Fold:
Amino acid sequence: MSNPLADMDKPDVIFCIGTNMTECHPVAATRLKRALTRGAKMIVADPRRIGLADISDVYLPIRVGSDVSLLLAMAHVIARDGLLDDSFMEEHTTEGEGFLEHVARFTPEWASGICGVPAEDIEAAALLYGGADRAAIYYTVGITEHICGVDNVQSLCNLALMTGNLGREGTGVNPMRGQNNIQGAGDAGALPNNYPGFQSVTVPAHQEKFARAYGRPVDLEEGMTKVTALDLAGDRIRAMIIDGENTVVSDPDRQHCEHALKSLDCLVVIDIFMSETAEMADVVFPATAWAETDGVCTNTERRVQRLRAAVPPPGEARPDWWILSRLGERMGWEGFGFQSAREVFNELCSLSPIYAGLDWDRIARSEYQWPVPEPGHPGTPRLHEDGFINGRGIFKMLTYRDPEETVNEDYPIWLTTGRRLPAYHTRTQTGRSEGLDYLLSEERLEVHPDDIAGLGLQNGGWAELSSPRGCVHVKVRATTRSPRGTVFASFAFNDVPVNVLTGGGYDPVTQTAALKACPVALKPVAPPPALGQTGLGGALGRTAPP
Amino acid sequence: MGRNGTALTLTLDGERVAFRRGETIFEVAERHGKEIPTLCYDPRLEPFGGCRLCVVELEGARNPVASCTTKAEPGMVVRTRTASIEVQRRVLMEMVASENRDTDVDPLHGYASQEMATLLDRYDARTGRFDGALSGESRFDDDNPFIKRDYDNCISCYRCVRVCAEQEGDYAISIMNRGFDTKITTEFGGFLNDSACTFCGQCIQTCPTGALGDLKALANRDVPGETETTRTICPYCGVGCSVDVMTRGDQIVGVLPAMDGPANEGALCVKGQFAFDFVHHRERLSTPFVRDLESGKLRPASWDEALDRAATDLRRVVGKHGRESVYAVASGRAPHEAAYMLQRFIRAGLGTNHIDNCSRA
Amino acid sequence: MFGPPPRIALDFSHPKPRDGMPTPTNADLVARWKDEPAPLLPLLHALHERDGHLSEDALRDVSRQLRIPIADLFGIVTFYHHFSRDAGGAERPRVCTGPVCAMRGADVLVASLRAAGHDPQAMPCPGRCDQPVPVIQGDTVLTGRTAATLTSGPSPLPAPPPDGIEECVFAGIRTPGRATLDGYRSQGGYEALTRAVGEMTPDEVIGVVDRSGLAGRGGAGFPTGRKWRAVAEAPGEPRTIVCNADEGEPGCFKDRVLMDHDPHGLVEGMALAAYATGAVRGFIYLRYEYPETFDVLEGAIAEAVAAGLMGDGILGTGFSFDLMVRRGAGAYICGEETSLLNSLEGKHPFPRNRPPFPVTHGYDNLPTVVNNVETLASVPPILARGADWYQGLGRGGHAGTKVISLSGDIARPGNYEVPIGLPLRELLDDWAGGPLPGRCFQAVTMAGLSGGFLGARDLSVTLDEPSIRAKESFLGAGGIMVFDDSRNMIAVTRESMEFFAEESCGKCFPCRIGTQRLVERLDGKGPRDLDAWVDEVTDLSEVMKKTSACGLGQAAPLLTESLLRYFPDQVREFVAVRGPQQKG
Structure:
């Protein structure tokens, strides 16, 4: 996030797009609700009538994958009506003139034809956002998990740049991170293009610095992304170490994933449960879990916080860093003799400019948001307050692209996927915590009542959902939260593996999968046999170790 | 400071003290170490003025004033603990005690659950005085597994209703009827699960009497040992809520939201509040496993064997296919040290950049 | 004038057939009210009237359209006495069991209704202590002694004052046709408004009101001119005039007579208040129990609008003022001004914390005048005849007049506009004919019920606040209920305390718990030992008086305190003779 969580109750206008925040980031959403109570206005763009839509002032039910058209048209209206922050554009941006020319042809009427939202609602949203003194954008993977994920983000940045909604309280372009330390994984260098602290691997100075620290040079060439690695498994990639990820359930195109992992010569998995992925491994290392592990994590607002062990782990489970240190030693490598999480974290701080002012003790009270360039620095709750570090914000000339797969005669319905409040990810944790089943015991495909009738389905009955990559059977729930022609399912339940269906395309830059837009076919099927005996919700139990 | 730069002051128990514009008498007094009793006060909520325990004497006012709702003004003369105020507080506590079934409450009920009991002790309230009808009507028929709704112990401070509205923004519960018949209710008096409730647990944590209780924590009330707390961060989404994990011995017995957590300021959601016991799940891995070369199945192994096996396999792959043939995927749910060590393993060990994390899925 | 009141039998058919009109849907009614100011109460009333109750389905539609969380809306609806949530609930007759009606045959009426096959419910005082016993059914209020003799009609007119006594608000009320615009104008009505908007600055209007000594006649007694000036000077627009016509105090029925027979007096008073303070909108918040009055007010406002006396560009000037009537739904606490504002805004009707006061943070958190009916009705005569004239109406240095609602054991119950400072004895004996034959006064209440009792030995007070406050009571809204020597004062106190317990809003602890515990003790529960009983009652009363958040909880214990002060023998006997200790 460019701005801190504390800013979330301060905007005059809130623009939420591709974020089901009340379910996926409930505590952050409470701040938005407080802003609304205070009188802020909210625009919500989402194909589904999510909880935020109910409390919004302008709701834009866009077709899945059509975000760029909407955002171009909003920019058009803002430019047309002169709602620009001229001095901000002058001082802090480049390519502004070209951008204003570029958006002149993308009218709300044009966008309406693509995203399906009435032109007057696009106007209303643009006027609201453009007219606010403090407007903030919040988004989640509803923006990024498309073939045009980067375009979507850059379209949002364009809006913020043209209206000067960056670098001030209650503004910003704010992605909400979905996992407790997904930000930290990047901070710590688990990226193919960056060393720790987002230092590019292709910069020779960085290579030199890490060569000194690690005792050997690292290639100047970027590594491959996970998506590519899975594609090349059994070919150029022959061994994988997977830490704490249930790849075969959470990643797109499950069959492809399973095939990829099977074709490896060696798969090492570190996890706390025998996940579907772990079951395919050659070696499984038992890790300590949350509340058993001392360590550090970074939240969505770049706040670096300590994790503390409260109880001992079961049996011989060990912290991930310990496992990898010992494995490094067994590999016969120098410099893997770490004996504590503190030691590991302090080495990270010493190599990462954004953490240079931090160490294990200094973060004990969760005070710092990176960058913290030197000891004594107060941290940086709000990015870009003094302009952009790299100079100027650059407007990007974008155009709308259709998703790689679009609805057609064979697959006439859009499937979009996501999460639900009581389930986290693939339920490895929430599914094993007492009581959560009370709130959510099975997956149900959300279908508009008109589609239920039109397709001969029944509320509570079963449907077969198929895409070019496979099919799944799922119970159906009638709800007007889904628009006509679009259905929704979460990927929480192993017995409804919707990621069997997804996988039709990746963003060309980030290789993020288009999990949010997948054309499918839908037809009624008979309920599965012997339902009564085994019950549903059964991702659990089956994964018990032998 | 006042508009002209002079400090604003009032007299608090005979002492001149400074205050900031907008502060309430309660806030000024608390800052100066006065222990003013309250039951309806939660610093995160709008002052309500219901319990009246925080009344103080204000010179010039006919009656004592509620310090939580009265803004400090220059020149006020305030007395927080006169004999008559203390008597009134004691009688009020005796009245409060008279409407409840229990005044002795297990702390596992929630963060604020000891507030009433503590004040009963502090004022040496004579329980049994003002005997009469009990207020509230417990909803033990509500079968939700998280929130105990024991309204026989409710004192109608409405902190639950206010926290649900003001903090959580869910407006799932409200106030029904009037006077002594007042009840905490959902829409049309139904179960929480049929209401707008998201089971965030905020109502539990602000309840000062244990009328609302954390059923998951209370299920552990027989676990031996003193309850200790450890500050850490919630394991779920990226908001990074601070929590205090409650333990007895080697067992987690519950979770308390950290009121001073910078990301959450006391808030949590259903996952952070209640989904903690996966840690002790019987399916947790407690030993390494290796794939048996003969049976082709995973079997438990010692660390020594498992590390050797992994190192041998990896070395063989590197030897055969080169260092570029090994790939690593880090977790977005493990700490920095895990991600850092994994990238170090790849970079320092193999000299490639073949590392990614699970953010692309 | 009104003819003899028609005799009406209880009509239980529902829904009432409308002449050829299709029944409006939820959506119709929501659309009718959604964009009006203060829409919740009128919308709920419309649905309630249509269905005879508020159905879940209707409430869910209201919740969605008005964006009021459904749990909150449900809670709000349960707060009011007269909103029924069960089918047919609105048609169930509700009978007053207030202190006066209880001793004037409420039980007989209940029994006769039951015998006639009805299911009568008790209700708190609906403001007809001068016409016992009232019963509400549907939207109709009837009064009488048995099911067969129930009648309906407007408030009885006040008896003329003794010779030589000048009145203010009642001066023209007995003139036939006074309730019509023509009748009102024929006596000089709206001349004050015409002169004010034509010749006076708003500040001059406030000046006259200020100098007249007019103070709040709803009971609080705050100087009206000062209140208006505070609103005129407060930042924030639009400003609002709210008339508190939620006359809920048992034993008070003075505002009803003013509105029934002289509605234009109130309308003109509100217009003057608006002109003086720069307000552009006004609400009359009328208690539910006065349905006929609602029609009278709506009619008067329509007449005024048609005549250019209300609405846009009043009397051809740039002054505009819109006036609306909103009905309560049965909640005594809504007579407390901040509860009233919450109720008007569609919120849970708890009193607000003060400060800030309504003059700066009133309706919609904007500057607002909240005045009682009598206060506002006093303004046109004051403007017409001058501040000195009004000042001079009082006695003993007190300014103006006060309407007293007199009921109970007295020869001629009714409303009397008395000079402030009049000896109470003079009112009771000379104006109202003294006690009933063969009886003598035992006690009277003050301020309806809120002032507790004055025992016979203290009936020498004069009717002004300083004199009455010296007796640990207060004049308040001016309701006086008389109890003669045939009455059991413990029973009277119990009934009265029950009222406060029933009407306590539930916000603050001392009132919510205290009223309940006092009722229980007056019911014979609590300690058996006299000293311990008195000790508990005294402690409860003292804490309620000192720490309650609003007037209800502060006033209710005046009943028990005055009971202990005047009637220690009845208390001793009561505690001694009751049975073995009963647990609550």
Q: What stands out?
A: The two ends of chain A are 43 Å apart (CA to CA). Chain A is about 30% helix and 15% strand.
